[in-house]
Every structure is written in structure tokens, then in C-alpha cells.
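Shipment paperwork, digital attachment
Item: protein structure file
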Amino acid sequence: MKIFSSPALYIQGPGALERAGAVAAASGRRALMVSDTIVLELIGERMRRSVEAAGLAFHSVSFADDVTHANVDRMVAQAREFAPDVVFACGGGKGIDAGKAVGDILGARMISVPTAASSDAPTSRNYVFYSDTHALLSVEKLVRNPDAVLVDTAVIAQAPPRLLSSGIGDALVKRWEAEQCIASGGPNMHGASATIASSLLARLCADVLLADGPAALRVAGSGAPDSAFERVIEACLLLAGLGFEGSGLSIPHAMTRGLSAIPEAAAQLHGLQVAYALMVHFRLENRPEGFVAEMRDFYRAAGLPATLAELGVTTVDESVIGIIADLTLKAPHTLNFERSLSAADIAEAIRSVEASPP
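Attachment content:
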């Protein structure tokens, strides 16, 4: 069985935020904005004006730090009396995930409003819970993809370049994860097989990022999106989201289980974690040295970590490598690989990455 899913509506461009009220009116009459405290300050008033101008009631709740059960439960308690029928999940990956979690519990429809392209969370039905120590606890799923995705590139172009580097990392890995998942007969995020469309979207995503990623990063933080920036944002949010959900994941996302057990790596953005893990993935595939060297050149241009040290890990020894390898092997996505892997295979690939010339 092949299954493909997507948001009902995707809108991208400068000023897209002004459509929030009109888009929400198609899904409900009482709109709740969920975000972290920084994003609430950044776009909260614009969201309120747009929603109320469309004749809808508006309320907001916010959080700090990670998407934990405690943070989500507190926001749900604050919003329950308001009884929203549509939730705006606003922010980067964490804000989007928090909005999904709150909307899921309250049974509301969901509209994602990314303010940074740090991950491909806006289009998918997945969301992640973390512990108070930043360790990944679980990956949950909405019953459907978001009703709409509003991508205001003038807002996203204000975000720091490091957030876009994370988004490029998270999106880039999807091509090679899709290839391994399809080759091994592994399931996509629906427990089914990939469509032609999803596999091509994952490949196209990487092509756009490799061509335009460094140029887009030069614009990041300026607030002035150009054509390269627009293409990269579409790749990071739309192409990557549809590509991974429809094609499946492999080693890079499996390794987040291991990396999140190392405090310094756990503190890094998700996209930077999986970008490092893609280097390990390439070693497990026995990619030619020339190919790996070219990818390392791109990593330098895109601000991505190619070693554990570049990911912030100060001590890389056999204990650290063993923890990462053992926990990675336990992640279900590790099965989506062309050959059966052991913890020793993963550990040896990590050693090979760490021994690579700079």
C-alpha cells in the first residue's frame, strides 16, 4: 500500500501572515495561538489583528524551553476554558510541535505558522516530546496534516542564520534517508510504501539546497528575502516535509536517540544533529571519499557540523561513541537500511567520521 499526505493549503511569501484570519475562518471561529514567549512578542499582535479582523475570537498561550509534558499540560489548562476550534502553531520546530500537541489534546484543527525554517515540522503530522534534560521522549502523530501552512518569508528572513542552517540540515538528510528506506522496503511515516511523488520531492529538496543553500544563508537575518532564499525556504518546509513523511526515515533520524543522550549534542538544534548523523550514514553506505569531501565542503558553506566536536561535544571517546551507537541501534528507523546493522557497525562509522581530515 502506498500512502501520501500533505497539508490542505500552503501559502508562502512576504506578508503571508496577514492572511491568518481569513485562513483560520475556514477551520473555526475561536483561534488559539501557541508559541514560545519570543515568538509571541514577535508576531502575537499581528496575529491578533488579522484574526479579529476576520471576525474570530483570539487567545494566546506561550511557553519557554522544550516541548515537555509539563509545558503542554499547563498551556492546555490555560486554553481549555477558551475552547478553541483552531490552533495556530507558531515558531520554529519547538513552537510548531507545541501547537500540535496542544491542538491534539484539545481536538482542534491546526494551522502552522513558522517564524524560522529550522525544521520541516510545519507540514507534517508528527510532533516530539522532550524531557526536562532535552532528551527525546516520544514522537506523536496528529490524525491529519495541518489544515494550512502560512510561511511569511519576510518574518523568516529575520531569523538568525544558525536557525536556517538547522533547517537546511534537517531537510538535506531526507534525500538519502528516503533512498535507504525505499531500497530496504522500510515503511514511510504512514507505515506504508513511498509514492513516486514523495521520493522525487526528497531528491528535489536536496538539489535545491545544494544549489542555493549558501546564498540563502547570506540573506538570513536581513529581513529581505530574495529568490534563492524563497527557494530554500520552500525546500526546507514543503519539499522536505512531504518527502520524509511520504518516503520514510533512516540512520540520521535514528541517531537523534543516541545523540540526545550526550548532553552537549542534546543541546544542539535538531537539524544540526541529523546533519552530523548524515555523515555517519554516508560511511555506513561506503560512499567514495570524493563524494564525502564534496559534502564536507557544502557543510562548511552551510554552517553544518561534520564531526562531534563541531556539534559541540568536547570529549569524544569510546564511551561516548558506544552510547550513541547502542541507542541508535534501538531506534526503529535503523531498520530502514539496505543491510542489517550492529552497534559495532555504527560505532565504526562514527570513528571513521571523526578520523576524517578537516
